[in-house]
Every structure is written in C-alpha cells, then in structure tokens.
C-alpha cells in the first residue's frame, strides 16, 4: 500500500522476513542507509550474498519483532523515502 509501485515482493508463507526488490534506478545500499538514518532498520540483500560485491536490488524486512503499529509506521517512512528517490 505505501511502497507500491516502487517495490516488488513475495508474500511470505511463513517465517520472519519479507524480501523486497527495488527498481533498477534506485541504489539499494543508499536506500538501506537512508532508511536506517530515518530509524527504520532494513538489511541490504548484499549481506546474504557469498560476495558482497554481487549486485542485488533486494533488501530484507523483519516482521517478527516490531509491533503492528511500528511496522505500519516503518513502511510509511520507507514509502516516503522511495517516493523521494524516484
């Protein structure tokens, strides 16, 4: 709702995380760094690559720890960040 049409994602069937993919024109590492500056923690996909120099446009969000309200607040912040970068 707040991050469309900027990202694509897979609806998780379980687990603790959701993977999101940014469009090619947005620098994923910069996006993740700016998100952390706005107090929203996301993990760059490069952290899960065998070599961090590999290219990925994906990042991971955790939905197991934050409250529902915090998740909504964080996703709104990420949506505003995506809009500013697009």
Task: Describe the structure in your own words.
The protein starts with 7 loop residues before the first strand and ends with a helix. It is globular, with a radius of gyration of 12 Å. The chain has 86 residues and is α+β, with helices and mostly antiparallel strands. It has helices spanning 28-37, 68-85; strands at 8-9, 17-21, 43-44, 58-62. A hairpin with a 7-residue loop joins strand 1 and strand 2. It is 33% helix and 16% strand. 16% of the residues are buried. It is built from two helices and four strands, in the order E-E-H-E-E-H. A four-stranded antiparallel β-sheet has the order 1-2-4-3, with helices on one face.
Overall geometry comes to: globular
Portion of residues in beta strands equals 15-25%
By helix and strand content, what is the structural category?
A: alpha+beta
Beta strands, count: 4
> What is Rg?
12 Å
Which strand order spans the largest sheet, edge to edge or round the barrel? Answer: 1-2-4-3
Would you identify the regions where 5 or more consecutive residues have pLDDT less than 50? none
Succession of helices and strands: EEHEEH
Helix content: 25-40%
How many alpha or pi helices?
2
Alpha-carbon distance between the two ends: 16 Å
Task: Describe the protein's topology.
Blueprint: E1 8-9, E2 17-21, H1 28-37, E3 43-44, E4 58-62, H2 68-85
Antiparallel strand pairs: 1-2, 2-4, 3-4
Give a short summary of the structure.
The protein is α+β, with helices and mostly antiparallel strands and 86 residues long. The protein is 33% helix and 16% strand.
């Amino acid at each position: 709702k707040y991050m469309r049409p900027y990202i694509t994602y897979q609806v998780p069937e379980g687990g603790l995380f959701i993977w999101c993919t940014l469009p090619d024109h947005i620098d994923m590492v910069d996006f993740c760094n700016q998100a952390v500056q706005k107090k929203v923690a996301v993990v760059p996909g490069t952290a899960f690559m065998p070599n961090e120099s590999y290219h990925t446009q994906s990042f991971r969000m955790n939905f197991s720890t934050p409250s529902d309200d915090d998740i909504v607040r964080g996703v709104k912040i990420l949506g505003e960040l995506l809009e500013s970068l697009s």
